[in-house]
């Protein structure tokens, strides 16, 4: 069984581009060549995309491999498979990694258990609940990544 996976490198130092391709090769066990273009939102960096059909869990492995580099802005999406929801991983140098379950249209779906925990932790504070919900929705990641998505020609995300 394979699922669609898309790697969006939204900004990276140009000298890291071959290392990103090598990291993907190490996970996918197939040659990876990305088309790199300059990233106008961050002069001196490049952006690129790689789409493929892979095994479930490939997006998590890619995020683990690239997430600690500290100089990349990227997103990895993986389609659903039997027993597994679709996922989106977002990563920035300042915020680290955010993971979300996604619907077919890209909306973030917050699991019931995480909502119940947010309600419990926010005891009596509307502002506290709002802060927890914005964290669950990855709003800080969307705000940081949106200018890079636009410059890279990626679909826009609605940010509140």
Topology:
Blueprint: E1 3-12, H1 17-28, E2 37-38, E3 46-54, H2 58-67, E4 73-78, E5 86-92, E6 96-102, E7 108-109, H3 112-121, H4 126-136, H5 139-152
Antiparallel strand pairs: 1-3, 1-4, 2-3, 4-5, 5-6, 6-7
Helix pairs in contact: 1-2, 3-4
What key phrases describe this protein's structure?
single chain; 160 residues; globular; disordered C terminus; seven-stranded antiparallel beta sheet; alpha+beta
How much is the radius of gyration in Å? 16 Å
Mean pLDDT, rounded to whole units?
Answer: 90
Instruction: Please give the CATH architecture of the domain at 3-109.
Output: 2-Layer Sandwich
Biggest sheet details: 7 strands, antiparallel
Overall spatial form = globular
Question: How large is the count of helical segments?
Answer: 5
**Using DSSP, what is the number of strands?**
7
- Which range best describes the helical content: under 10%, 10-25%, 25-40%, 40-55%, 55-70% or over 70%? 25-40%
Would you give an account of this structure?
- The protein has five helices and seven strands, in the order βαββαββββααα.
- With 160 residues, the protein is α+β, with helices and mostly antiparallel strands.
- The chain has a domain at 3-109: Alpha-Beta Plaits.
- It has a seven-stranded antiparallel beta sheet with strand order 2-3-1-4-5-6-7.
- Helix 1 packs antiparallel against helix 2 (58-67) and helix 3 packs antiparallel against helix 4.
- Residues 156-160 have low confidence and may be disordered.
Q: Concise description?
A:
The protein is α+β, with helices and mostly antiparallel strands.
